[in-house]
Amino acid sequence: MTPFRWGTMRIAAIPLTRGRPPIAFYDFKVQRPPAPPPPSPKNAPSPRKGWLPEQGIVKWATLKVDTTWASWGKAESGSWRFRVFEFGERVLDRVDFEEGALKSIDREHAPPPRVPEKLVGAEREAAVAAWAQIKVPLLYPPKVLSAPEALDHLRRLVNTRIPLHNRGVWTYLLIVPLTAPFMLIPIIPNLPFFFCAWRAWSHYQALQGARHVDGLLKAGKIVPQALTALDAVYEVAKREGEKEAPEEDASKDASKASSALIVTRESLGNAMRDLEMGPDETKEVLRAYEQAMNRTRTAS
């Protein structure tokens, strides 16, 4: 693959609450470019040498952690591994959904905010021409947002998250050395260390994702694009709200939280289908819905 054959990217904005700015879920989807044809036997690269994994240390470590964590979820019920997995899943549900969305961006294949400086000569000229054609659509529901509002809310998101995740990275990196004494405990792994290291890494990934989007915004590469299909999310939620009167014995806080939301779990199904979300994205949307409900309940 030539250095300037980047993938495509689209962003979908799904407001969850009323207000200016609203709480909104952003779905960042990167489509990788077509794989290059395999090299001819004459030009095939020589076998790799050394102990480093072919995909790189970072990807290898990430895959290893994901595989280990999944195996703990399949451990015997009641075992310490399964209990740690259950606790970890509850912690994941409390991590800001915005963090999960930003760190999910595939920056390796996403359109870059600028032409890579390492390219020179004819290769750079071709890259500049290809980069000039880049447009990242920002899909939004036109009955809920206008094009300027969609851009403004996305800009507000990255401007808020960049300093937050920057602090998160350094906070957890400073805490990591304090977890060293737990390494002396036999058999059970140093869970405090792994938790702090994971939180630092998660903040770092979200920070890089936010900076990437910020760069695209500043370069004028993100273009608002109305998607009328998304309006169905709010039309369905409105009809459901009109049909279901609030229960008389419902708590005041729950009633306020419900009235602040402009979507329902059921109506979000329209967005999931229209945006062709996978299982992981669907899980993140529902997590965002639950967190938005909790935030509005706390604010009230």
Automatic annotation (TrEMBL):
Entry's InterPro entries?
Answer: Mit_KHE1
- The question of whether Hydrolase is a record keyword is answered with yes
| An example Gene Ontology biological process | potassium ion transport
Pro residues: which segments have biased composition? 33-44
Top-level taxon: Eukaryota
Q: Does the keyword Transmembrane helix apply?
A: yes
Stretches the record annotates as Disordered: 28-51, 241-261
Q: Which UniProt keywords apply?
A: Hydrolase, Membrane, Transmembrane, Transmembrane helix
- One annotated GO molecular function: hydrolase activity
**Compositionally biased region (Basic and acidic residues):** 241-255
- Write down any Gene Ontology CC term: mitochondrial inner membrane
Q: Where are the transmembrane segments?
A: 169-188
Q: What is this protein called?
A: p-loop containing nucleoside triphosphate hydrolase protein
Q: Which organism is it from?
A: Mycena chlorophos
